[in-house]
Write a structure and sequence with these properties.
heterodimer, A: 501 residues, alpha/beta, Rossmann fold, 3 domains, 6-stranded mixed beta sheet, 20 strands, 34% helix, globular, B: 322 residues, mainly alpha, ABC transporter involved in vitamin B12 uptake, BtuC, two-stranded antiparallel sheet, 2% strand
């Protein structure tokens, strides 16, 4: 497989630190020429940071990077691209209004005299590359009309026209059908034949065994190991990803007192994202919902809150059928939500803490004419103290708070609104370890006080630690329900079982 | 001066980091004011000051509505045309109904025009500036149709009092303007309507996900914009006792400038009605200075444009830097 003994990419002790997190901890890695190398790890293991360091998006803090035998320090994605590194992101980076051909040659237009685009030369080159790769793409169609698979092919073509030798593919099979995945694999094998190196990042273990030569597993920013795929099986890979079980505090916790039914979903469906989902959550429990990216858990959360509308299915709140077609309905029915992206969807960043806290229950603080600032501030100060939110005063803008404190402000909003059901979508994402534990504690306290917490997270350790019951989603469906005390290993295995299905 | 800056301080004290810049801008304008009053003869006479205030009141009333629209994250350039239609209607309708009924009808028409702007923006999702560019043209066309292209004149003496009357030494339009400032400042700062308007402009999606019917409040800001533009049209007609189909052209820019000088952020989410009082006064002081110093009226256009670009540029650039 490797004729040239010098590896294409070599990392020596590469590190990257973000405030509060060591995202990459002294990574050593070699990727040979012409191999398909799979990169695995749970959410937050450091996969995407590694990719961004290699592709010149982030500067590294320490360590050395050799590409094609030379030590490099890419200062920008442009420099990395010029060296022959191409990244195909999970989300398409094509410009929807440009045609396939225009996208492929974007920034490297073939021009003639006076920078006029040379249509004929462009087309010839496009067709010759397409022929070489046996791609069948419509050159003049706007890329917004392409299927996801065609978009991926266009991006690969774009990389090839730029003479890329190293292709990084992030979750390329997301939203592809089985046939399309098969086609993509044929393309990858063909690229390998031509000496192109592929770094393949995925959540789906089956794919890794089908396509990769070697596997590298990351965990908590460290490399756990690199091994030839041939010597591994599912069980071994999952063990590498999960590591040793931490002390099992979940099992030692007393069983939560389950109250009456809080919310029940019956055969909820929306597009291909959520398929035929039924479950029931009770007052006083934390119901964990987990699954890999794209498994439909965020989409389910949005359905429960009325942020999107289901195509079919029914919802019951406190046992009564309810039509929840907007967040207004959800709030009226006692449901609150912490959105996945708290800065974009959860907070009005420029506004003061107290305005953010009272907005979901503002009517309560208004007399027949005016808002009572005194009553507002009293309620806010109470909840700020209760959740120990660290702020100077309630008139401070939310934007200056730390991530953990911002998230607590969102929780405070729903506490003040006194909601019985709280949907929390990735409540600890991007939050430092200390605040994370604190938020877990708050969740438990709320549940003990009788609230129903629907806790959505892709981070297996925290799902296991915090939940009373766990639903595993896969391909838009609920694949399994696990009781408290299920091991991380079992959960990861359930999450990663194949695409689709 | 002291009273004015004290007022300013109270309005802006809780604004955190942003206040410094706006404060600086404010001081800059007050500085200009002082210079003007020193170098310009006849500036500091009671007559001239009342004159400035009275000139300010028509645009000022309009700007109150504009501020709500901008705070809610929108933009409204149709208000100048709406002023013309409102002015024409408030005079012509008096041929067939008493003046107070005419006023009521005109205010309703204004609110309705705002409703159309709001629905097109919030429900049909047309970008606000394009929506109001369209309705601006339509309203101007309606004014021509309604007037037949000729000026409309004549109204009852009661009606004229709105524009030209005095209470003691103070012209009535000033009283209307100040009353509106107080009422709408109260609504903005002290009622759920005002709070939700700010929230929608600050982050519509986050507000929606807090269970607030955001489209309703988004539309309401435009309704307020239309209502206040109609009111300014009524004052305009009562002041001149005449309305031409060309009335109010360019007023929308003055209204927007008054808002941004007064501390309303163009990207929405925060603002002040009391700030408008200062914004519109400063704008008219500059105009007045040019008039008293005999400087060409055309220069005033340049100055106004530069003021808007400076203020908005300052705000947008520092926001981008963050």
């Amino acid at each position: 497989m490797t004729q040239n003994p010098v590896p294409l990419l070599r990392l020596c002790g590469v590190s990257k630190k973000f405030p509060g997190v060591q995202a990459l901890d002294s990574i050593d890695l070699e990727i040979g020429r012409g191999e398909v190398h799979a990169l695995l790890g749970e959410n937050g293991a450091g996969k995407s940071t590694l990719v961004k360091v290699v592709a010149g998006v982030y500067p590294r803090d320490g360590g050395r990077l050799f590409f094609d035998g030379r030590e490099r320090a890419f200062a920008s994605p442009g420099e990395a691209a010029a060296a022959g590194i191409a990244v195909i992101h999970q989300e398409t980076s094509l410009i929807p209004t440009l045609t396939v051909m225009e996208n492929v040659f974007l920034g490297i237009e073939r021009t003639s005299f006076l920078n006029v685009i040379d249509e004929r030369r462009t087309r010839e080159e496009f067709e010759s590359v397409c022929r070489r790769l046996s791609f069948d793409l419509p050159p003049d169609r706007q890329s917004r009309w392409l299927s996801v698979a065609e978009q991926k092919m266009t991006e690969i073509l774009k990389a090839m026209v730029r003479n890329a030798t190293f292709l990084i593919m992030d979750e390329p099979t997301d939203a592809l059908s089985d046939d399309e995945i098969e086609h993509l694999f044929r393309i990858i094998r063909d690229l390998r034949q031509r000496g192109i190196t592929v770094l393949y990042i995925t959540h789906y273990l089956e794919e890794v065994f089908t396509i990769s030569d070697r596997i590298t597993v990351l965990r908590d920013g460290k490399k756990v190991g690199t091994q030839p795929t041939a010597g591994l099986d599912h069980g071994k890979v999952v063990k590498l990803m999960v590591g040793q079980e931490v002390t099992d505090e979940a099992a030692s916790r007393p069983v939560a007192v389950r109250g009456p039914e809080a919310i029940r979903a019956e055969r909820l469906s929306r597009g291909r994202a959520v398929l035929d989902v039924s479950f029931c959550a009770f007052q006083g429990e934390i119901l964990g919902i987990t699954g890999v990216l794209g498994s439909g858990k965020t989409e389910l959360a949005r359905l429960l809150f009325g942020a999107d509308r289901p195509d079919s299915g029914n919802l019951y709140v406190q046992g009564r059928p309810r039509k929840i077609s907007s967040p207004v309905d959800a709030v009226a029915n006692g449901i609150g939500m912490l959105p996945e992206d708290r800065k974009r969807d959860g907070l009005i960043l420029r506004h003061e803490v107290y305005k953010n806290v009272t907005i979901a229950a503002l009517g309560r603080f208004s007399g027949w004419l005016a808002l009572s600032r005194g009553r507002e501030l009293a309620a806010v100060n109470r909840v700020v103290q209760d959740l120990s939110i660290k702020i100077r005063d309630a008139g401070q803008a939310v934007t200056n708070l730390s991530g953990g404190n911002q998230q607590k402000v969102v929780i405070a909003k729903w506490l003040v609104a006194e909601k019985k059901v709280l949907i929390m979508d990735e409540p600890t994402r991007g939050i430092d370890v200390g605040s994370k534990v604190e938020i877990h504690r708050i969740m438990r306290r709320l549940a003990n006080a009788g609230a129903c917490i629907i806790f959505i997270s892709a981070e297996v350790p925290e799902i296991v630690r915090v939940s009373d019951r766990i639903l595993v989603m896969r391909g838009g469906r609920i694949a399994a329900e696990c009781p408290r005390g299920t091991s991380q290993e079992q959960l990861v295995t359930l999450m990663l079982k194949g695409n689709g299905q | 001066m002291n009273g004015l800056s004290g007022l300013w301080e109270r309005t802006w004290a809780r604004r955190g980091g942003f206040s410094i810049k706006k404060y600086g801008l404010m001081i800059g304008f007050l500085f200009i004011g002082v210079i003007i009053s020193i170098i310009t003869p006849n500036f500091l006479t009671a007559t001239n000051l009342l004159n400035i205030l009275r000139q300010s009141s028509i645009v000022g009333v309009m700007a109150i509505g504009t501020a709500f629209v901008i705070i809610g994250g929108g933009f409204d350039i149709s208000v100048g045309s709406l002023l013309a239609l409102a002015a024409a209607m408030s005079l012509k309708l008096q041929a067939s109904m008493p003046w107070y009924a005419a006023i009521l009808v005109v205010l309703l028409v204004g609110a309705l025009a705002g409703l159309v702007n709001g629905v097109l923006t919030a429900k049909v999702h047309i970008v606000a500036i394009i929506t109001t560019l369209g309705t601006m043209t339509i309203l101007r066309g309606l004014t021509y149709l309604y007037t037949g292209g000729y000026p409309i004149t004549g109204s009852s003496t009661e009606f004229q009092f709105i524009g030209s009357g005095y209470v003691g030494p103070i012209p009535f339009p000033i009283i209307v303007f100040l009353a509106m400032v107080v009422v709408w400042q109260f609504i903005l700062k002290k009622t759920t309507l005002g709070r939700y308007a700010c929230a929608v402009g600050g982050n519509k999606e986050a507000t929606r996900l807090s269970g607030v019917p955001v489209d309703f409040y988004h539309i309401m800001t435009f309704v307020i914009g239309g209502l206040m533009a109609a009111m300014s049209g009524i004052i305009y007609a009562a002041r001149l006792n005449a309305a031409t189909p060309l009335a109010g052209q360019g007023y929308e820019l003055d209204a927007i400038a008054s808002c941004v000088i007064g501390g309303t952020t163009v990207s929405g989410g925060e603002g002040s009605i009391i700030g408008i009082l200062i914004g519109v006064l400063l704008l008219n002081i500059v105009n007045n200075m040019f008039n008293l110093l005999g400087i060409q009226v055309y220069i005033q256009y340049l100055i106004k444009g530069i003021i808007i670009l400076t203020v908005v540029g300052f705000d947008s650039y520092s926001r981008h830097k963050q």
